[in-house]
Structures are given as structure tokens and as C-alpha cells.
Amino acid sequence: MKKILVAIAFLLCSIAGISQKVNKITLADNGSSSIITFALDENVVVSISQNGNLVEWGVDRYAGRLDNIQRKLDEYTGRVEYYTENDNEAFRGKIKYIGKTLITYYASFDNQFFAGRIKAVGSQNIEYYNNFDETASQGKIKQIGQMPFSYYSSFDNEAYKGKIKSAGSVAITYYSAIEDKGFAGKIKSIGGNNFVYYSSQEAQVGLRGMLRTGRQVQIINGVTFWVKYN
Fold first, then answer.
1. Which residue, among 29, 24, 27, has the nearest Cα to 64 in the 3D structure?
2. Handedness of CA 164, 31, 144, 89 (dihedral sign)
3. Cα 117 off chain centre by
4. Does residue 227 contact residue 170 with C-beta atoms inside 8 Å?
5. Which of 49, 86, 91, 209, by CA, is between 20 and 30 Å from 109?
6. Phi, psi of 173 (to 5 degrees)
């Protein structure tokens, strides 16, 4: 009986960990920004910037569907709590609980470089590159749980320095500054899946710089990568 209870407890912890994992990474087509989204219980999602700030959260009524990936989130009507005036100044007033998921932040007595940034979403701890790391990576997310993130350095090509280079084992490349101006700096590949754009010489002006071939939505290692075009 004891072994069965231990097994059940382990299974519940495993399910909780899975439900709080990174499930989507949204990239601007030129890699200038990235939004990381966590899937929680009850189809709730929480999105944060690459600098660890909360972007949005709510209920994704179409969770699991890819036919309309850009959609407005519905209001979550379950348990929602905020840190109070009695809490640390770096996170007082910020959201604390969404349902059963606790969100924590770096406090004012932690490294001031991280103060106020999200420290964990449920079981997923978040680490950042500090002010001693390479200039282009400073302050950006370094690791979420077991998933590492890297960025192109300040010594790399002007078109992609500082942009996200990898998320976990998935590499992201960009067209360099010497490429056609219609797509210089835009995403070239995600995990080996290539993107080709119309050049600045296209006869139809409206097509210049637009995606010619390549999939905007790709699921790699269980994470949805979405390239967002303005």
C-alpha cells in the first residue's frame, strides 16, 4: 500500500511539472524579441519576455489547436492572488497565484540586476545571465528548468547579435547583414527548418521581404515555435 501511495504521489508531481513546462516560444520574424509561454492547469497560459517580465496570462480556450495560433486569451475566473504591501518591495502588487501555480520573483536583496524579475513559474525555476556575462546576453533568460537559452554575442554579425541563438537543443539562425536588404536579419532557420523570403528586387512591391517558403508554426521537442510577422 505504501509503495502505491508513493507511486501516486510521484505521478502527481510529474504531471504538475509537465503542466508548467514551456510549451510555446514566439519569435518576431527578425528575432528582435521572443516571448516564452508556459502551459498551466485548466488551459491557463502565462507568457513572459526574454527579460523575465510578465507579458500576459489567461485561458486559451483553443489549447492544442494550431489553426489560429494568434488569439486573445480569455479571463481566468479561478483563484488569483497578488503579493501584498507586506511583501518585498521588488514584487509587491505582482501576481502570486494563478490557480494552484505559484509565481515567485527575485527580491530586492537578491542580485539587483534580477530584482523584480520572475524567478519561478510553479516548478520551473528561471535563471538569467548576469552583468558579468557577455554584453549581448546580460539580463536575458539563461535557463528555464532544464531548458538552456543562448544568444548571439556582441561580436557576431550586426544583423543578429544579441538575438536568441538556441532554446534547448533547437538552434536558430538568421540572414546576415550582407544578405539582400529585403530579408537581412530575418530568421533563416529553426532547428534545421529553413525560411526563404522574397527579395527587395521582386516586381511586386508588396511581396518584398515577405515569407516565400517555410512554416511559421513548428513543433520541435514538444515546444511550439511560432514566427510572428507584423
1. 24
2. positive
3. 14
4. no
5. 49
6. -120, 165
Radius of gyration of the chain (CA): 20
- Distance separating alpha carbons of residues 2 and 207, to the nearest angstrom: 65
E-strand ranges in the chain read 22-28, 34-39, 44-49, 54-59, 80-82, 95-98, 101-105, 118-121, 124-128, 141-144, 147-151, 164-167, 170-174, 187-190, 193-194, 196-197, 211-213, 217-220, 223-228
- Of residues 29, 32, 34, the one with CA closest to residue 182: 29
Q: How many Å apart are CA 82 and CA 141, to the nearest integer?
A: 23
- What distance in Å separates the CA atoms of residue 185 and residue 11, rounded to the nearest whole number? 44
**Nine-digit cell string for 35:** 516571448
Q: Which of 116, 112, 113 is nearest to 103 (CA)?
A: 116
**Cα gap 130→80, rounded to integer Å:** 31
35: number of Cβ within 10 Å: 17
- 112-136 confidence digits (pLDDT tens): 889 999 999 999 999 999 999 999 9
Angle at 213 between CA 164 and CA 63, to 5 degrees: 65
Q: Which long-range contacts (CB under 8 A, 24 or more apart) does 1-9 make?
A: none
pTM: 0.87
Q: By C-alpha distance, which of 62, 55, 13 is closest to 38?
A: 55
Q: Are 92 and 84 in contact (CB under 8 A)?
A: yes
> Mind listing the pLDDT tens digit for each residue in 150-195?
999 999 999 999 999 999 999 999 999 999 999 999 999 999 899 9
